[in-house]
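User: quick one, fold this
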Amino acid sequence: MVELAGFDRPVNWHKASLVDMLAEARAAKQEGNDLLAAGDLKLAQIKYEKTFHNLEGLRGLDPEDFDAVTAVKVAVLLNLAAVMQRTGNHVQAEAQLAKVSL
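Assistant:
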């Protein structure tokens, strides 16, 4: 017998407030950071890519909201570049860094 101790329902990115979306993105980034620190590079890469994809889809933001989203996106891209570098994918790491300067 297995007992479910807890369950975090993901944010619905189509209906949620920006505050909720950013909170989930920051939490996902932290999960990626924990995976990266533990050496699980593949799962960290997946977590960072999904987080960036979700943030990249946000449109029509106010300037202050745009800045907050951009800050999380930059952190995720830098972490993703670190994953790529550690796995020896230097070209992909450079591609992630190029997105930061856009």
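User: anything notable?
Assistant: The two ends are 51 Å apart (CA to CA).
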